[in-house]
Amino acid sequence: MGGIFGIGKSALMAYQRSLDVTGHNIANVGNEDYSRQRLGLSSQVPLTSGVGSVGRGVKMTGVERIADQFVNLRLMDSTSESAKHSVYRDFAQRLDNLLADPDAGLSPALSDFFAAVEEVANDPTSTAARQVLLSEAQTLADRFGYLHDRIEQQRSIVDGQLKTTVDEINGLADSIARLNTEIARVGSDRASADLLDQRDAKLRELSELVSVNTVMQDDGSMNVFVGNGQSLVVGGKATELRAMNTGSDGVPVGIGYVSGGTVVPITAQLTGGRVGGLVSVRNELLDQTQDTLGRIAVALANDFNAAHAQGVDLEGNPGGAFFDVPDIAVSDHPTNAATGTPDAELLDLGEARATAYELRFDGSEWRVRRSSDGQAVGSITPGDSLEVDGLRIDTAGVSGAVSGDRFTVEPFRDAAAALTPVVVDPRRVAAASALDGVASNDNTGDAVIGEARVVDGAAGELLIPAQIAYDAATDTFNVGGVDFARVPNGPTAIEHNGWRVEIRGTPADGDAFTVSGNTSAPGDNRNALRLADVRQLRTLNGGSSSAAEAYSELVADVGVRTRQAGIAADASKRLHNEALAQREAISGVNLDEEAANLIRYQQAYQAAARVIAVSNEMFDSLLGAFRR
């Protein structure tokens, strides 16, 4: 009698709990973080008797959480990758739309500027045409500044999102640590399935922000690591990450790992998730685009200034600079012990790269690293200089450096914003050629003189006539008492009083050439034509690209990056959806299955109740027999 009653009682309790678990599953069908649960059942230890073993009913072994840890890890990884590529794609599309805009991009401003130069060449005496040129020059400078400012706005957004993301990471790390504490308190075998679901949900949220690695501990807690193994969560303790400024001007924002009261920079070590995407956007998109745009601005200004210096204005004054070209920016780090800053000079624009450089002192030398690709490009003994990528970096002005001191050299980062026309008077536009070089009518040789070019516009005697005479006895040209040996098989270069000229051919003894200031400046358009030719000058990328071509290449490069980012984002999203579907197939709640279980457990519960009723009836019958 006790046996059948006990069997019925165990079944009644087991299927009542099974109905509770099934109801819990159904209640959480809309909970994306929920993992389906199942009540484990096994038979009781049988009772051994003389007639053999007799069953004693069913026992509950615990609520089992239906989950695959390897599937969950794959979902975390795919979440991290999808978030990274999605962030990169969004910023790339904004940048692509900005640069390729037919109205707001640089190309229309360049076209309008050089069209105005050609109008001056067509009518060099027209004050109106000159005024239009100055107006278009200001518009061009404003367009450079506009593009720079818009990119800078995106940089501010990136930095702001990095700060916000760091706060979110710290909040999630604290939540995971608290859940670890609760899980470890009851033990891994008895931990609530809902607690484990909550922790997995927090881990997925964390992986959306930054790529993480996890290690399960014996007590059921889970350690979480970021970067190159930096521990974010260990058991019930979370380590703080901190947004930190990495430059003296307060930007850009980096991420530091707080260890022992000190903050160790780990930005470069963090990959994946929103953090990885934002850092890639800043390093690969914004920095390189700004540097390239600034290099184009410097190339255009230098080429136009060089051409403008070859001419004279309506009053006969040398042209000089048309644009103000900014100096190379060198910034120090707030923690530097060194005093003074390095000096940087642009030597060859054709060899210069669109990148920044970091100088870091190791205690004996300054190590120079190129920011765009992270490559070490040389070292500088304190007080010496280094020539690299068309630049000269001189450390003579730096003293008192200690290991860890660093400087950042940015040749072109802010150049686009600083480009400014310095010619504001239409009469100061140097449309006429500054010099005339002519051969004497009495020459009998076949030598010809080339165009006289200005090499030093500040030379006091630049426009004073000077005669070049050839002496066959010494086979030299003489000007101002200085001899220049003739080059038999090539041009002979002669420099004097700030100008340079080349003479080709074979002169006769006594042949003479005169270099003098231009006497027909008002109607001369030779230098305006030279200014118009600047549009075609290929001084960038090793002499293969003009400023306009370099901008087109920039637009194309950003377009390709945007396209690649879109493909990567779509692919990573598909992989994420597949991982999510795989988890749902294992852990998701199926209402049809739960409905069937509900009916099955209900019937089992009713049957168990009937077993108890039968045992009660049998007991009553037995008592009735004894009463007779």
Biggest sheet character: 5 strands, antiparallel
Secondary-structure-based class equals alpha+beta
Order of strands in the sheet with the most strands? 14-21-16-17-18
Residue windows where pLDDT falls under 50 for at least 5 positions: none
The number of helices is 10
Sheet-strand content, in percent, reads 15-25%
**Rg computed from alpha carbons, rounded to a whole number of angstroms:** 40 Å
Shape: elongated
| Count of structural domains | 4
Q: Tell me roughly what share of residues is in helical segments.
A: 40-55%
How confident is the prediction overall: mean pLDDT? 90
Measured distance between first and last alpha carbons: 20 Å
Quick rundown:
The chain is an alpha+beta fold.
Task: Describe what you observe in this structure.
The chain folds into four domains: 2-66 and 590-627, no CATH class; 71-280 and 544-580, no CATH class; 327-413, no CATH class; 435-517, no CATH class. The mean pLDDT is 90. The radius of gyration is 40 Å and the shape is elongated. The strands form ten sheets. It has a five-stranded antiparallel beta sheet with strand order 14-21-16-17-18, with no helix packed on it. The two termini are 20 Å apart. It is of the alpha+beta class and 628 residues long.
